Amino acid sequence: MLPADARIRSRQDFGSALKRGRRAARGGVVVHWAPATVQTEDQAAPPPTPPAADANRTARAGFVVSKAVGNAVARNKVKRRLRHAVAAELPHWPPGTDVVVRATPRAAERDFAELQRDLTEAVQAARTRKANRANDRRSTP
RNA sequence: CGAGAUGGCCAGGCGGUCGCGGCGGAUGCGGGAGACCACAUCCGGCGAGGAACGUCCGGGCUCCACAGGGCAGGGUGGUUGCUAACGGCAACCCGGGGCGACCCGCGGGACAGUGCCACAGAAAGCAGACCGCCGGUCUUCGGGCCGGUAAGGGUGAAACGGUGGUGUAAGAGACCACCAGCGCCGUCGGUGACGGCGGCGGCUCGGUAAACCCCACCCGGAGCAAGGUCAAGAGGAGCCGUGAGGCUCUGCGCGGAGGUUCGAGGGCGGCCCGCCCGAGCUCGCAGGAGCGCCUUCGCGGGUAGACCGCUCGAGCGCGUCAGCGAUGGCGCGCCUAGAUGGAUGACCGCUCAACGACAGAACCCGGCGUAUCGGCCAUCUCGUUCC
RNA sequence: GCGGGUGUAGUUCAUUGGUAGAAUGCGACCUUCCCAAGGUUGAGAGGCGAGUUCGAUUCUCGUCACCCGCU
User: ipTM of the assembly?
Assistant: First the structure.
């Protein structure tokens, strides 16, 4: 499972990750991939997050499972399976990354193997999209 | 064997690996004078339900309010018990259903008053009479008029007791017998609801209170985001703005009592009576008043860290005694989640006829209601067959 | 955690306990060379389950769904 340090816990972190993150959907999940706020190229605007050392923190994940997924038992089950799947992926993510995983109503019907495949594919898609966007931004100006 | 009735129990089991949340222990490093704290690793043990659900009732706990009485509002509704309490439960009574075991019932009052009863029907509540029936009278022989009557017809959910007889012009509780129902009296049984028996009376006055209402009994408000401690900040009760009002508590400073009459005004958290407070004023003089820094309420906005509350309790299991029972007494044993983006997931082996329904704690209990795959146990009823 | 409200034609809403209506939409017909507009006409509903009552959309209880507010 996920240790406490690797979880997104505050409302602000959820909001910023959902806002900044690149989005990709597969099967029963939607992934928001928010890379570490390191001021690299184009000044990145005054970031809402404090200047605290963001990069040397471990990657974190948060989960959003709405009432549309099902009753409390179904929601808990989906959330626990997603946590387990993320725990396997987390070590491969760069430090400082925030990832929010949303579950769609279809997630309740998928077994663990399907859910795990959905997650890895969605994460892959979100990361590559991030790279493309970065390339576009670099070329256009 | 088949069909049922009632009560109770289980909620797949055993084991392994990697993780997660508390708790306990050990070791290491760091901080500290120390108690100890933080982090890491390892070990041990614990980790959702019978409904954790809905939030329909009742309590505990916490804060606020509170002399007392009445009104309003809400709730309950056979009796006797059980219980911390209840709208719950038990036994019993009454009414209804079932061959039966058994089940169902918001089950006080309709002579305290008011309202309503569509359509149909003559008539829907207090009497009255459409078609009839009978008598008298008139007649153009179709019937009209006057009187008596309510047995019969038809309408309706409901029509002023039912059946048979006596009686009469026709009829009628007018009278008689039996039956149903109402009221009163006596007596017996029962704590009681009520029931049994006997007698008398008028012969008989619909339904609806889950219509208003009457009667009896019960009910202060909010909820663990209650409430408290610590840190920061402007004196504090968390912060800011704005409007209206006010002087409660603590600390400090200024400062210096208390009592009585009248009393603008205010409070008693829906209202009233009533009670209480009360600037000022008067008398008066040694009792910490009063005032200020502030504070209360409404509206709007922003902020919210840590800890306590937080799980040992009307607790659970077994035995025994009292009781028809709900339940209670006593004895012995047991400790059983406490999170705060919120802990149970993944993989594998064996096993069961069945891969296994409904469903996830958030302060805690007692009920009720609802959802639910399948299985087990006990007692009882009816039917069939055999002995 | 606490509290409030609403379920009626496909849609938006009415309706003292006594045959459930309106607007709009839909179908057919008339009108027009055709369409629109207009006219005539038709179909179509009480969330679900019990109870009270002679009779329930209405009253009571339970249940389900949806919406809203406070903290």
Answer: 0.74
